[in-house]
Fold this sequence. Notes:
The complex is a heterodimer of chains A (257) and B (310).
Chain A: H1 2-23, H2 25-28, H3 30-51, E1 53-54, E2 57-58, H4 59-89, H5 93-97, H6 103-130, H7 140-164, H8 170-184, H9 197-203, H10 207-220, H11 227-251
Chain B: E1 3-13, E2 19-29, E3 33-37, H1 44-51, E4 59-64, E5 67-68, H2 73-79, E6 80-83, H3 95-105, H4 110-123, H5 139-151, E7 157-161, H6 169-184, E8 188-192, H7 196-202, E9 205-210, E10 213-219, H8 220-225, E11 229-236, E12 249-254, E13 257-263, H9 269-277, E14 282-287, H10 291-307
Parallel strand pairs in B: 3-8, 3-9, 6-7, 7-8
Antiparallel strand pairs in B: 1-2, 1-4, 4-5, 9-10, 11-13, 11-14, 12-13
Amino acid sequence: MGNVIQFNALKTIWIKECTRFLRIWIQTLVPPAITMTLYFVIFGSLIGSRIGEMGGVSYMEFIVPGLIMMSVITSAYSNVASSFFSAKFQRNIEEMLVAPVSTFTIILGYVGGGVARALLVAVIVTTVASFFVPLNVQNYWMIALTVLLTATLFAMAGLVNAVFAKTFDDISIIPTFVLTPLTYLGGVFYSISLLPSFWQTVSQVNPIIYMVNGFREGFIGVSDIPPVTAIAVLVVFNAVFFGLAWWLLNRGTGIRS
Amino acid sequence: MTLALEINGLQKTYKGGLEALKGIDLNVEAGDFYALLGPNGAGKSTTIGIIASLVNKSAGSVKVFGYDLDTQLAEVKKCIGLVPQEFNFNQFETVLQIVVNQAGYYGVSRSLAHERAEKYLNQLGLWEKRNSPARALSGGMKRRLMIARALLHEPKLLILDEPTAGVDIELRRSMWDFLKRINKEGVSIILTTHYLEEAEMLCRHIGIIDKGQIIENTSMKSLLSKLNVETFVLDLEPVQGSLSLSHVTMRQLDDHTIEVDVPKSMGLNQVFTELTEQGHKVLSMRNKANRLEELFVGLVEQGRLQKEPA
C-alpha cells in the first residue's frame, strides 16, 4: 500500500515536472539548440578549421561531446533549481509536504524531471551537431551511463541549491560563478594533455573533466581520463549529493519553520 | 468517544525566541465542526501548521484519529485535508492539474483523481473553469479551488484556516452550505475565521486562543449562554427632542433610531412598555451586534487583564 502511494506520488511529480518544462519549451528547449548552433558555427567551423586535429579527430568532432554535455549539465541543474525554488516561492511545495510523500520520492520526482529535460536537450543538441559533423559512436553504454549519471548529479545539485535559495538571485549565483567556469575549464574545448603538468593536476579536481571525457570516450574513443575512473567519480559524486539532498529535505531546511 | 484531534502540551518557540504556543491542550471529537478563534498572532496558524506537519513543534504531542504525529506521520497526513490561509498553488497550472496532482501526492491513481475532481469541482462550481490557469480565477474561485484540492483524497479531518477571507457574502453562504453538507456526511471540520458570525452559524464547539494559550474550550451553546446582555436597534416614529429610558442603557443615534442594551434577565417587555408610555411607536427592531463577537472580545480582554501585572 505504502509503495503504491509512493509510486503514484512519484509519477505525479514527474509528470508535473515534465509538463512544466514542455509548457515553457521556448525557454527550456530552444535556447540550448541556438547556443550550440553558434558554438558549432564559430568554434567548430570558423575557428576549428584553423586548429586542425585534436585527439586524433577534427576539432569539431572533438568538441561535440563536450558541448552536448554542457547542455545536459545546464538543463538538468536549472530545471530542478528553478522548479523547486518556484515551488518554495509560491509555497506550492506545501502541497507535497502535507501529503504522505517520502523525501526519497520528492528527490526522485524532481531529479527525474531534470533528467528528462536534460536527455531531451541532449537529443536536440546531438541532432543539431549531426548537421555539422558526422557522428560516430564507439561505445553506446559509455554514452548512456555518463549522460545519465551527469544529468542525475546536476539535477540533485540544482535541488540542493534551491533548498538553500531565498531569492531568485540565489539560484543564478552558482550557475554563473561556479558551474560555468568549471564547465569551460572542464575540457570541453581542449584536451587537458595540452596543459602544463601543474594545471593538468589542478584540472583533475574539476569533476566536469570526468564527465566530458567519459562522454567523449563513448563518442570518439578518446579520453584524458580512464573510463572506469570517470564512472567511479560520477557514482561517488551522485552518492554524496543524494545524501546531502536527502538530509536537507528530511530536516526541512528552507521549507519548514 | 473517538477523537479526531488530540493535542497535549503543544509548544512552539520559533528561531529568534518568539513563543507562539505555550503548551496548549485541545480535543476535537470525530464528526465535530470546531471553531478555533483568536486575534491575529494568537497561535492559530502555528497550531494548524504543526498538525499539518508544515511547522516543527518544540514540545508536546498531537494525535489525529489516534495516529501519533511523531511516529505515524504518513497515517496522520492521510487523515487530514488542509485549506491554508494564503493561496499556495502554482498559479501557472490549470485548476484540473492542481487538484489531480494533489490527489496524486496522496497516492490516488490518476483515473480516480479525475473522477473525484469532476465531483468536487462540480460541487464547488469550478468544473467549467477546469482548464483555466489558477492565476485567471477570481479570489472566491481560488478559495473554492483550495477546498476542492483539500478534499480530493477524501480526508476524515478537514482543516480550514480562514477559508472565506475576502469572499463576498453570497459566496460565503454557499461555501457554508457546502461545508455543512460535508460535515453531515461525516467529515470532521476545524475552522479558523475572523468572521465570528461564521463560527456561530457553523460550529458546534469552539476554542479561543490568545497569546499561545487556550483561554476557552467549550460548546458554542454553553459559550453563548454566558452572554447576559444583548444590544438591539429600534426604529421609531420620529422623536421630537431627546429620549430616555430608566431601566436600560440606551443611545439615541438620530431622531428615529435608538440602541438599547437589554440584560437577558429583564427581557424586552419593559422596554416596549416604557416606550409606549412615553408615546413612542416602535416600527421595527433588529439585534445589533454579533453575539459571539461581544463574547470573544470580552474573553480576550478578560484573559489579558488576568495575565498582565498590575
